[in-house]
Amino acid sequence: MRALPLNFREAPVLDALSWNDWRWQAKHAVTDLQGLDKALKLTEAERIGAMRAMAAGLPISITPYYLSLCDPLDPDCPIRRQCIPRAEEALAVKGDLRDPLGEEAHEVAPHLIQRYPDRVLLVATDRCGVYCRFCTRSRLVGDGGGARSMRALEPAFEWIEAHPEIRDVIVSGGDPCLMSTQRLSRLLRRLRSIGHVEYVRLATRTPVTLPQRITEELCRAIRESHHATWVMTHFNHPKELTDQATAACARLADSGLPVMNQTVLLRGVNDNPATLEALFRGLVRSRVRPYYLLQMDPVGGTGHLRTPMRRGVELMAALQGRVSGIALPRLIVDTPGGLGKVPIGPNYVVREDRGVTVLQTFRGDLVECYDPPEL
Ligand code: SF4
C-alpha cells in the first residue's frame, strides 16, 4: 500500500482492506476546503479556488487514492493541478464556452448526443471519482443527478434502436464505472440487444483516479455483458501510472478488453516532450494504446490550463521518430460547437511537383519520393 495522504494517516480504522475497496475510496472522497487543508499545504490561489468551487460551478471531489498522489508541498505538482481548484478558474478568457462541444445542441434524445453519423454518446451518470478541473462537461458533472436509471435511459435506447446507422455507442458521463456493476451490466446488455450496435466504448477515468474499481469481477461483468467493449481511459501524466493503476490496466487487458488512452494537453502538467514520452511509453508497457493527444476544449474556467495550438504541433514533431508508432497518439482538436474532430500535426511534405514529393524526415533530411508512372 502506498503512503496515505496526511489526513488519512491518522484514521484509526484505516487498513489495506479499506484502502483497496473502491466504495470506501468513493465514500471518503474529499469534497471541501477542510478536507484539502488536512491533506495539503494550500496556496492562497488554491484556497480561493476551493471556496469558489464549493459555492458554485464544478464541485470538488478527489478520491483519497488520487489525493495521495499529490505533492502536499508543491502547488505545481502535476496531479494537484488537475484536481485542486485555483483562483484562475474565475478568469474569463477569449473563446471560453460553457458547452465547448455543442453537446446540448446535438442532443437527440434525453442523455444521448450525436455529433457523427455512425456513433452516439450516452451520458449515463454525472458522478466521477475525481472532478477534473479541465472537464469538458463541467456544466453537468456533479450536478447531483447520479446514475441515470434504466427507465430514464430508455428513450435513448429506443432512439438508437430506430437508427440502424448507429454502430458505436460511447458510454460516458461522468464516469460510468462509478455506477454499480449490476447497473452497468444492465446498461451494456441493453445495448447488446440492439443488433446494429457493433461495439461499445466505455469512457472511464477510474483506472487513473480510482483503480480499486477495476476489479476482476467488474472486468468479467463487462466482458459478459458486451463482448465488444473497448475501454477508453484518460492518463495525463506518468505520475498517474502507479503500481495500482498499471495493475488495473493489466486486469482489463487480461480480461480481453482493449484499452485506449486519451491524454489532454495541459499547461504546466504535460506540455513538454519528456513528460509525454514517459507517459506514452509507460502506457504501452501497461498494454494501453495512446490514442489521442487532445488540444484542450475551451471550456470556461480553464484558460490557465490550456496551451497554444502550436505547442501541440511542436510536441508531436519532437516525439516523431523518438518513440515508436504504437506509442504515438494522434493530435486532435475537437472543434468548438461540436463540428467534429480535426487531426493536426507537423507538416512533413516540403514540396510536391510533377510527380515528385519532397518529404522531411524526423532528422531533418529531405527525401524525394517518386509517384508511379500513369498507366
Ligand atoms: S473523469 Fe472525465 S467526466 Fe469526470 S470530471 Fe474528469 S474529465 Fe470530466
Short description:
The protein has 375 residues and is an alpha/beta fold. The chain has helices at residues 6-9, 16-19, 22-27, 33-39, 44-55, 64-68, 78-83, 150-161, 181-192, 206-209, 216-225, 243-254, 273-285, 309-319; strands spanning 107-109, 112-116, 119-123, 168-172, 199-203, 229-233, 259-264, 289-294, 330-335, 340-344, 349-353, 356-360, 366-370.
Which runs of at least 5 residues are low in confidence (pLDDT < 50)?
1-6
Element order: H for helix, E for strand: HHHHHHHEEEHEHEHHEHEHEHEEEEE
Count of spatially separate domains: 3
Shape: globular
Strand order in the sheet with the most strands: 1-2-3-4-5-6-7-8-9-10
Question: What's the average pLDDT?
Answer: 95
CATH topology of the largest domain: TIM Barrel
The CATH architecture term of the largest domain is: Alpha-Beta Barrel
Q: Characterize the biggest β-sheet.
A: 10 strands, mixed
Number of strands: 13
Percent strand equals 15-25%
| Number of H- or I-type helical stretches | 14
User: Which structural class do the helices and strands define?
Assistant: alpha/beta
Q: What is the class of the largest domain in the CATH system?
A: Alpha Beta
